[in-house]
Amino acid sequence: PPTKLPKVGTTIFTEMSQLAAEHGAINLSQGFPDFDGPLALLDRVTYYLENGLNQYAPMAGVMALRNAIALKVEKLYGCTINPETEVTVTSGATEALFAAIGAVVCPGDEVIVFDPAYDSYEPAIELNGGTAVHLPLRAPDFAIDWSQVKQAINDKTRMIILNSPHNPTGSVLSSSDLDQLQALVNDSDILLLSDEVYEHICFNGPHQSLLRRPALAERAFVVSSFGKTYHTTGWKVGYCVAPVALTTEFRKLHQYLTFCTVHPIQLALADFINDYPEHYLELPGFYQQKRDLFCQLMKPGRFRFTPANGTYFQLMDYSDIQPEMDDLTFARWLTTEVGVAAIPVSVFYQSPPEQRLVRFCFAKSDDTLREAAEKLCRI
Ligand code: PMP
Ligand code: GLN
C-alpha cells in the first residue's frame, strides 16, 4: 500500500537507545531518568492496583487528578480553569499533541513549527492533510525570530506550535516572547499548541506558560506530562488544558484514540500531588544541580557548550573534536567507540544548518554523569 508518512522511519530515540544497549554504552540519548519516581507515589500505585481500581477511568480523566491540575495551573500561572470542561488527562503528552493537532488541522492548513522540532509534531500535521512550515530557531541561543514568524503567517496559517522549555536545545521563552506572540495572533483565528512538558524544569526565572496570558490561553492547547515531572516516563500520563470549545473537539479524538488513560496511576498521581504539592517546586533545583555537575565535569573536555536554561538536556558542540563528521555519524561513533550515547540534533530539522551539535540527557545519577563525562573528556 502507499505510505501515508513517506518521511517517517524508526525514531532516533529508538535507534540510539538500541545502539547503546548493543554496545553497553552509557545511554545519555533518549530522554529518561535512570532513577525512580518518589516512593510515596509508587506506593499509591501499588495500593490502587491491589484494591480493585483496574477498570476504565472516566473518559476525560479521574476528577481528583483534573482538580489537582486546575489547582496547580491557578497557583503557578494565575489561570482559573474549569477542571470539568477544560482539562483532559491523556496517555502521555504524545497523545495530547496528536489529539490537539488532529482536532483542528484540516487539509490545506499550515502549521508553523520551530526547528529543531520535537519529532512527533510533523507526522500528526501531515496525517491530517496539513503542511508544516518550518522556521529555524536563531543560533546561538535558539530564540524565535518573530519577524520571520510574521512573514510566514498567511490565510492558511491554522496553528503555531511552541515548545518551552525546549527539547532539544534547552532554550526557554521569555515574557517578551509572549508579548510578541500575542501581538501576532491578536485579531486572527490562529490557534496555539504549547508543548510545556518540561514546565517544572526551568532554571533561570519562572516558566512562561501560555496560561499566564488570558489572550493566549483563550486560543491554546497547553500540554504537559507527568512522566517528566515525577520521573516516570514509562507510565505515559499527560494532560491538555484548553478552553471549552477546543476541549470539546479535543475529546472527540481522545475518546477514540484511547478512550481513557490508565486508571490506578491517575488515582495515585492525584493523591501524591495533594500530599506533596511542593514536589514540583523542588524540581528546578534538583535538575540544576545535575546540569551544573555535568557541565562542571565536561569543562576539561573539548566539547563547547552554554548551560541549558531548561529541560534535562544539554547541547554540546563537537567542532573541535571531529569537525568532518556529521552529527549522526558522530553520535553513532560516540556510542560504539567511546561508550556514551547521544542524540544528533540535525534529525530535528527540515533543513539542518551547518552545525556540529549533539544532545546529552543529564537526568541521570551523579555517578552515571561522572562516568560518562570521564569518557567524553578523554576524546
Ligand atoms: N514533547 C516533548 C518536547 C518531549 O520531550 C516529550 C518526551 N519525550 C513529549 C512531548 C512526550 O511526552 P510523553 O512521554 O508524556 O508522551
Ligand atoms: N522525549 C524523549 C526525548 O526527547 C523521547 C521520547 C521517545 O522516545 N519517543 O528523548
Automatic annotation (TrEMBL):
Keywords: Aminotransferase, Pyridoxal phosphate, Transferase. It comes from the Bacteria. It holds the Pfam family Aminotran_1_2. The keyword Transferase applies. It comes from Amphritea pacifica. GO terms for molecular function: transaminase activity. Its cofactor is pyridoxal 5'-phosphate. This is Pyridoxal phosphate-dependent aminotransferase. Residues 26-376 form the Aminotransferase class I/classII large domain.
